[in-house]
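To close the section, here is one more complete example, presented without commentary so you can practise reading it yourself. The ligand is magnesium ion.
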Amino acid sequence: MAPVHLLDFSSTIPEARAFDEAVAHLRAGGLLAFPTETVYGLGAHALDEAAVAGIFRAKGRPASNPLIVHVASVEAAQALVTTWPAAAQRLADAFWPGPLTLVLPKASHVPDLVTAGLPAVGIRVPGHPLALALLRQAGVPVAAPSANRYMDVSPTEASHVQRALATSPESILLLDGGACEVGLESTVIDLTGELPRVLRPGGIGIVRLRDCLGEVAELDAQASPGPLPSPGLARRHYAPRAALRLLAQPEELVRVGAACEAQGEVVASIRCGSGDSRPPLHHVLPGEPEGYARLLYATLHALNQTDATIILVQAPPQTAAWSAVQDRLRRAATTL
Ligand code: TXA
Ligand code: MG
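Output:
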């Protein structure tokens, strides 16, 4: 069997029993890549430690990086934790199913491998109909990081998963559910401290979280000198093959682009809102954050298929609505 075996649901509404093969594979300890509304996940039965170990091998991911557990309902989430604070209920009521991960003290039957030894577990109910139907039929919690190799750009289409994991040591069943709607990972919020704290900006913005909860703290991963409280916040992450440089002014793209070309670089660009789109190297993404987020990773994957050596990115506006996009671009750009 090829490492990635694809089941195509991209243009059909799955019928009852459509997930029989996938569920049997999952329950037997196999790896299952599936679409969520944010990005594709690489899933395994969360309570089966040997199955979860396969995720780390397939991704080449260090065991110090905790996984998000996906469930179909609030009740299934509650079964994985030791406390369910009022804030969790409010957030679940407002945003589940959806792109929000709650970090809560874990129940003892959640394997340490899932949480990378941390006392808390990240949980979410995803909003994608295929993911939800799968989780309902499976009836088990599914641990799933994004279905890319460690540090690479997350997949928002099945073809990205196929390419990324084609040489994986594990065989993987992949459900193709078309392109992801949100396009950036979920927001991760820690509810174990005195104040709810955003560990990773994502699909649900800080303004909506504050409307729901009142005070919410933000983590400034750029500034924090000590160990990162959420290991997935490694500073270089989500990176394409080419070097990526963020430029504040659109005019700089022309000047810096010419200078790079003079040095023999193959220059690609991503502009925001308006400009000249000349694929495969030059792209213009929407001037509003949801549309931009939906297409960003697909654009970086497309550029990975070119011979670009440097990608010049026009920095989007410095406003709260753009913070998840800003965060991913900064991480893709930073080299340590
Ligand atoms: O949208 C998403 O969240 C996607 C889809 C597949 O659900 N998943 C995803 O997983 O992005 P991953 O593993 O690529 O990123 C998980 C993030 C990391 O930043 C990780 O550190 C954080 O969630 N996280 C998970 N469990 C945690 C925990 N117990 N404590 C703190 N952070 C946690
Ligand atoms: Mg990831």
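Once you have examined the tokens, check your reading against these statements. The longest strand covers residues 40-45. Residues 224-228 have pLDDT under 50 and may be disordered.
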